[in-house]
Design goal:
Elements (H helix, E strand, L loop, with lengths): L6 E5 L3 H7 L4 H22 L4 E8 L7 H20 L1 H5 L2 E6 L7 H14 L5 E9 L1 H14 L6 H6 L11 E4 L18 E4 L9 H13 L7
Parallel strand pairs: 1-2, 1-5, 2-4, 3-4, 5-6
Amino acid sequence: MTTYPNHLAIIPDGCRRWAKQNGMLPWEGHKKGIEIIEELVQWFIETYPTKYITGYGLSIENFNRAKSQLEALARLYSHHFSKIAEDERTHKNEVKVQVLGRIDLLPKKVQEAANQAMEVTKHYDKKVFNIALAYSGRSEIVDAVKKLNNSNSEITEEAISNNLYQPDVPEPDIIFRSSGEQRVSNFLLWQGAYAELFFVDKFWPDVQKKDFQKAMVEFSERQRRYGV
């Protein structure tokens, strides 16, 4: 019997290197990368029974990049959220959009566009698309522990899990990363403890449907042991 992941997490790495390789500006690589994730996520939603998809968009560490790059990313993400909110496929497939991270650190226009997308999809529950922005796996764990300390609660594994940014979202079954790099880069550190890792040696803008199809086949063939 074919087994599919309930939660697919994606690290769409290599957009800047793709742009450099093709004689483009860094923001043009990010633009192409966002276009690819929009199309691949919509296709994946319509093709597989997977309910949750989480994409790594912008880490807290990325805030150290040049101001011009961050401004370009802000424009791209503002447009991205508005596009998702208006896309008829979002509503046809009943996709709930959520942002994972320290949203208050994002530029106001990104916050407004993200809130719009979340507001118009908040009643959906058939599919869930999480976008990690201003996100850090370590910061998420720290924030969870701070909440427990402030409430004088006992610090246990279960308590930390229940105080993460999105405690209702199950742990990822797969973490899929592009660009040939083989690391998780501070992404879903707590939740991804037993995730199956898949790496493809392509920059994100070059990733195709067949790469995800191959990952789905391999996932179904793996025997998950959860440390046992």
